[in-house]
């Protein structure tokens, strides 16, 4: 019986009558299948929509932004003036405002290389205040940020600056930073160095300073609110620079030679980066006033320039790496002291010269003067500009 039953089932003809009967059923089944497919497609659409909205709301901490506007900006860095505004409006939506308790005046910053920007904190999380601010940059090769939230463009590209609270590190807010300008090759070379055969042989290529770095051409003349000694623009406590002077970033020659300096340091295994470059009169005013509020005028005058007396406003001065006494004695500080002259820079506020320069020792602050001058100053044992030209550096009051 078993075998008969099997044979009956295996008979190919057995299927035929079924088909005929199921025309109606078939139609029903087709309809059912269609319904299932439609349902699945709908489900897929819903899931995709959800994934998209999550993606954009998560963007604050993302280091690889995907939105179109900013990508476009990065590739067309030359046209920053007009693009900056569009970038600001579009990225504000994605990067930034959240329920951490921090409220900033803006959540995106657009800078040139060497330029500086700041986001003002309008509101802190409960229990936190200004001294609890912790500022970090997702990529200091693109932009750095100091302990006050001053953001400085270092190299073309995009990165994020995060403000968190020392009291409660879970509370944080993110700012998108777009830097327009040349991409810094110094750091990239650093990693690519080993497999570049051309790089291996040029170890002794210490530049002949006198034929390389050019002195920046004076753009103004004395008596116009500027003071030049030869080609060297002097800004110290005696000599001011007009509030209206706004190069908007580092002097191009200064910037070029700074990147060469960085490459030189990289060859010695050191990472030198710009922590603070150009500062406008208004930015310096804000910094000085906040320092005075904290330390009083007398102490502030030993380390922070009054607005109009800051060399940073010239676009010819750079604070490298760590802007504090923690930098003293580091290999990078030593390297800067020994080698910056080879690239047309001088250490502007050397050790033991406070009475002459008016500022305490700042191993991080270098000033571009061109290689002619930097060599002369180096040959005379690293004297100051004030000594070289016989100038004073004293506030009138
Ligand atoms: Zn400085």
Quick structural overview:
The protein is an alpha+beta fold and about 400 residues long.
Description:
The chain is 38% helix and 15% strand. The chain folds into 3 domains: 43 residues; 113 residues, Sandwich (Immunoglobulin-like), CATH 2.60.40.1080; 205 residues, 2-Layer Sandwich (Muramoyl-pentapeptide Carboxypeptidase, domain 2), CATH 3.30.1380.10. It is α+β, with helices and mostly antiparallel strands and 397 residues long. The protein contains 14 helices and 15 strands. The strands form 5 sheets. Strands 2-9-8-5 form a 4-stranded mixed sheet, with helices on one face. A hairpin with a 6-residue loop joins strand 8 and strand 9. Zinc ion (ZN) binds next to strand 13.
Estimate the mean pLDDT confidence.
76
Largest sheet: 4 strands, mixed
Give the helix level as a range of percent. Answer: 25-40%
Lateral arrangement of strands in the main beta sheet:
2-9-8-5
Radius of gyration: 31 Å
- The CATH topology of the largest domain is given as Muramoyl-pentapeptide Carboxypeptidase, domain 2
Cα-to-Cα separation, first versus last residue: 121 Å
Which ranges are low-confidence, i.e. pLDDT below 50, for 5 or more consecutive residues?
1-18, 52-93, 186-212
Quaternary organisation? single chain
Shape: elongated
Strand content: 15-25%
Number of strands: 15
Bound molecules: zinc ion
Number of domains: 3
Any idea what the CATH architecture of the largest domain is? Answer: 2-Layer Sandwich
In N-to-C order, the SSE pattern is HHHHHEEEEEEEEEHHEEHEHHEHEHEHH
Count of individual helical segments: 14
CATH class of the largest domain: Alpha Beta
Helices and strands: which structural class?
alpha+beta
């Amino acid at each position: 019986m078993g075998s008969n039953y099997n044979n009956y089932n295996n008979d190919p003809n057995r299927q035929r009558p079924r088909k005929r009967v199921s025309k109606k059923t078939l139609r029903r089944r087709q309809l059912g299948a269609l319904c299932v497919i439609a349902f699945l497609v709908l489900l897929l659409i819903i899931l995709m929509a959800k994934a998209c909205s999550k993606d954009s709301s998560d963007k604050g901490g993302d280091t690889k932004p995907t939105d179109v506007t900013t990508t476009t900006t990065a590739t067309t860095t030359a046209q920053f003036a007009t693009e900056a505004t569009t970038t600001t409006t579009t990225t504000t939506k994605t990067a930034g405002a959240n329920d951490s308790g921090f409220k900033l005046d803006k959540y995106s910053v657009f800078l040139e290389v060497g330029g500086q920007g700041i986001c003002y904190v309008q509101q802190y999380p409960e229990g936190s205040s200004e001294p609890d601010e912790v500022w970090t940059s997702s990529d200091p090769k693109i932009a750095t940020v100091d302990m006050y939230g001053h953001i400085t463009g270092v190299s073309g590209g995009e990165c994020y600056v995060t403000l968190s609270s020392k009291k409660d590190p879970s509370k944080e807010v993110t700012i998108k930073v777009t830097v327009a300008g040349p991409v810094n090759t110094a750091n990239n070379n650093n990693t690519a160095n080993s497999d570049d055969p051309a790089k291996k042989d040029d170890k002794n290529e210490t530049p002949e300073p006198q034929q390389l770095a050019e002195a920046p051409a004076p753009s103004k003349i004395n008596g116009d609110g500027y003071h030049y000694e030869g080609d060297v623009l002097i800004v110290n406590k005696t000599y001011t620079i007009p509030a209206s002077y706004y190069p908007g970033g580092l002097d191009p020659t200064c910037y070029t030679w700074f990147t060469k300096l960085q490459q030189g340091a990289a060859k010695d295994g050191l990472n030198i980066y710009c922590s603070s470059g150009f500062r406008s009169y208004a930015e310096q005013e804000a910094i000085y006033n906040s320092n005075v509020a904290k330390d009083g005028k007398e102490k502030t005058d030993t380390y922070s320039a009054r607005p109009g007396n800051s060399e940073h406003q010239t676009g010819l001065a750079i604070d490298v790496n760590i802007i504090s006494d923690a930098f003293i004695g580091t290999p990078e500080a030593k390297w800067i002291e020994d080698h910056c002259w080879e690239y047309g820079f001088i250490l502007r506020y050397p050790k033991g010269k406070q009475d002459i320069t008016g500022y305490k020792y700042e191993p991080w602050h270098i000033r571009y003067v061109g290689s002619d001058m930097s060599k002369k100053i180096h040959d005379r044992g690293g004297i100051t500009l004030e000594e070289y030209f016989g100038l004073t550096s004293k506030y009138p009051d």
